[in-house]
Amino acid sequence: MPTVSLTVNNEVKQFEVHENELIWDELDRLGTKLPAGCLAGSCGTCRIQILKGPENLSEPRAVEKETIHHLEDQYKKKYGDDFMQGKTIRLSCRARIAGDVSITPFKEKI
Ligand code: FES
Predict the structure, then answer these.
(1) Which strands, in side-by-side order, build the sheet including 11-16?
(2) Is the separation of the CB atoms in 14 and 100 below 8 Å?
């Protein structure tokens, strides 16, 4: 089973999850609720930063790509063009697990 490592306030929790399931659903099933709004890929509330293993997630589909693009634009406008450099954002309600991954909620306000 793959492992999702969740870092919140320097504390790391590990979850053994089912492959091909959504990150948000699997953590919810195991008792941890990530932030959420629409749970459909359009609001961006569930955004997470991928610390390790971005290649172990499903390729983003059109709706997730569009939402992430919009979020990145907003962050760049607020914090500058370099802000997103080296950061990988995904939506936990859309990203499916294919292997080990480390994540943290993406908390910076827009
Ligand atoms: S909860 Fe709205 S995009 Fe994930």
Answers:
(1) 11-16, 3-8, 101-105, 47-52, 89-91
(2) no
Nearest atom, ligand 1, residue 93 CA: 4
CA distance 39 to 34: 11
Per-residue tokens: 95: 């990203």
Query: What architecture is the 3-105 domain classified under in CATH?
Result: Roll (3.10)
3 CA from centroid of ligand 1 (Å): 22
Q: How many residues does the chain have?
A: 110
pLDDT in tens, 30-65: 999 999 999 999 999 999 999 999 999 999 999 999
| Of 13, 47, 9, 19, residue with least CA distance to 31 | 13
Instruction: Parse the chain into domains and list their residue ranges.
Output: 3-105
Q: Mapping DSSP to helix (H, G, I), strand (E, B) and coil, where does residue 65 land? A: helix
